[in-house]
Amino acid sequence: MQPPPKIAIIGPIMSKPTTVGVVTPQTARFESPLTLKSGATLPSYELVYETYGTLNADKSNAVLICHALSGNHHVAGYHSEHEKRPGWWDNMIGPGKPIDTERFFVIGLNNLGGCHGSTGPSSINPHTGKPFGASFPVVSVEDWVETQARLADRLGIHQFAAIVGGSLGGMQVLQWSVNHPDRLRHALVIAAAPKLTAQNIAFNDVARQAILTDPDFHGGDYYAHGVVPRRGLRIARMLGHITYLSDDAMGEKFGRMLRSGAYNFGYEVEFEIESYLRYQGDKFADSFDANTYLLMTKALDYFDPSHHHGHSTLSETMRAARARFLVISFSTDWRFSPARSREIVKSLLDNNLDVSYAEITAAHGHDAFLMEDPHYHNLVRAYMERITGEKAA
Amino acid sequence: MQPPPKIAIIGPIMSKPTTVGVVTPQTARFESPLTLKSGATLPSYELVYETYGTLNADKSNAVLICHALSGNHHVAGYHSEHEKRPGWWDNMIGPGKPIDTERFFVIGLNNLGGCHGSTGPSSINPHTGKPFGASFPVVSVEDWVETQARLADRLGIHQFAAIVGGSLGGMQVLQWSVNHPDRLRHALVIAAAPKLTAQNIAFNDVARQAILTDPDFHGGDYYAHGVVPRRGLRIARMLGHITYLSDDAMGEKFGRMLRSGAYNFGYEVEFEIESYLRYQGDKFADSFDANTYLLMTKALDYFDPSHHHGHSTLSETMRAARARFLVISFSTDWRFSPARSREIVKSLLDNNLDVSYAEITAAHGHDAFLMEDPHYHNLVRAYMERITGEKAA
């Protein structure tokens, strides 16, 4: 009888990327008052967050994920074995994934003002025992960066290996690099812009007006009336979706397809694109808080690091930054087009900063930053592999 | 004493372009039933129209103007000496203007379903004594062409020298060229598309949903409730305006300018672009009928001459056309981009039709078709001068 053949292991076995599994959100409570850019002060607040992977001994492998308009702390994994869909960036973050939780300690949080557990307009105001509603202050990207820095302090992290974000998340990364240049070694700014254009603001204002003029809005205090401004939030989300997708991708997926194959000559759902948008609008209106939506769009509109710093140009503002940058844009993104990312890149190069830039050819418009694309993911993977094991500066 | 010098007149004196002056709308009543594409029948209806210039003896100099989404019969001139703004295309039509009313007999009408005098949802249904409201049938571009043809019959015009329209108006011109090839010698199709894309339909559906879900809509019968779905119509118009303007033009005109120079950290009007859009929305909501808006956007969505004719390609559909074409697009129009006009041009060339095509470099996006641009206006002027005096075929 032959002995079983010996197996020589030549190199590391690459396991298939998998999930971080079941994760449990945690809550950090902050009792020291926070004065916001608006001048308003929050005496205390909570931030809900999740972590994946293990913080190493010298605390040099932490990665912060900043979320976009409708995102939250549930970035990867599942809240239970029965949850059908994983966190919103599960394709990017996990064991063996581009942001590899076997190398990095990854933190996702729900931003202040959110509606998924962090203190926001729908939270109970301890002074009144009622939801904050309209009394919750407008927060800015700078305020978020400050609260994220406090959370890092709480977790004992002085310097992040990287801070990563797409869209509004990318704006937070930019703001971090200016406000706390020594607290991040790498900045991954994806599908972002250095500030909104008039057209961007216009779309946001239409969305806000739909919510603000919904009779169920009640000046922001709809909680007390047992209603939500569902119609307005639905319109806002439908409109948002149009700007997240490219014209071509929408054409390819839906074209002029009719649900019943013929014109109905009425106002019921008829084209497939209508069905898709209304479904997205309905789903969102059932799960998201309208006041948070207002607040997030306002943070987007206000974001302009040059404005806040009293500088005249983005290049002058970025003079403060010390991080190395990976900037990524997507060819069919018309919300924050590649030209907007190139503005960021130029401002970094003007300051002799270390910057890699890639414009990914992708069909799906702004939403491409959330999708699994080999070119895009391999790029992030290669970048993150290269910075693995770096020590704190 | 010297005699006054003699003045030799070398050529015709070109008078400065001027206005057609005060015009009075007329109404044509049609008592023969009209069966619409939807299958619904209108037993009778009225069309309001204006004419400028003089119909010549052989009735060969008539030009029909087809209006777009929010247009009407008041194309040129003033309704009284006190009216501040002239008709919507006064810069194009009048004595000495590109469509010269000293050469042509120009007709503008309010389309069936409109809200400016032609029979539409806000008209009184003679059978009930109440406004049609939700019972007014959805009309299509083909239906409009039929009613326009009946108006031409009434005026004794068998063949138009030209039919001219921008945007949805251009779609009516295309439909005319297919449905009544012998009734127009020239087709001027400006800033149009052969059919809407999924993105175009998506924007229309968001606008419609804003109106349909406004609590004041009352299923379309808001007239009886003494209200109008003002909020919804306002949102629809604000959104529309974003798609009419180019990103660049909006940026140049409004940029990130703030009304008060500083952030307010609230939801009152703040950026200049917000002020502009809300003003446009308010003005429109005060003057336009929501049911007509719904109906016009549906006509846009349905427009697809190939679909209606059971043909598989636009080229096959345009085989029926006999007119000569001038097709014009504008470089920054992202609602109906130059690529959409080139689709039209290709289908005409595939049929060996006579077609001139110009892509005008213009900053103002889709709205450019309504603006006074020397290159654009000189092109239309030259085309119209060339066809002056042609006899009916």
TrEMBL record, chains A, B:
GO terms for biological process: homoserine metabolic process; methionine biosynthetic process. The keyword Acyltransferase applies. It is an enzyme of class 2 (transferase). Belongs to the AB hydrolase superfamily. MetX family. Pathway: Amino-acid biosynthesis; L-methionine biosynthesis via de novo pathway; O-succinyl-L-homoserine from L-homoserine: step 1/1. Transfers a succinyl group from succinyl-CoA to L-homoserine, forming succinyl-L-homoserine. It is found in: Cytoplasm. PANTHER family: HOMOSERINE O-ACETYLTRANSFERASE. Its EC number is 2.3.1.46. Substrate binds at residues 237, 367. Keywords: Acyltransferase, Amino-acid biosynthesis, Cytoplasm, Methionine biosynthesis, Transferase. The active site is at 167 (nucleophile), 333, 366. Its main location: cytoplasm. The gene is metX. GO terms for cellular component: cytoplasm. Coiled coil: none annotated. GO terms for molecular function: homoserine O-acetyltransferase activity; homoserine O-succinyltransferase activity. It catalyses: L-homoserine + succinyl-CoA = O-succinyl-L-homoserine + CoA. Transmembrane segments: none annotated. Residues 61-370 form the AB hydrolase-1 domain. This is Homoserine O-succinyltransferase. Pfam families: Abhydrolase_1 (PF00561). The record marks 335 as: Important for acyl-CoA specificity. The keyword Acyltransferase applies. Homodimer. The lineage of its organism: Bacteria, Pseudomonadati, Pseudomonadota, Betaproteobacteria, Nitrosomonadales.
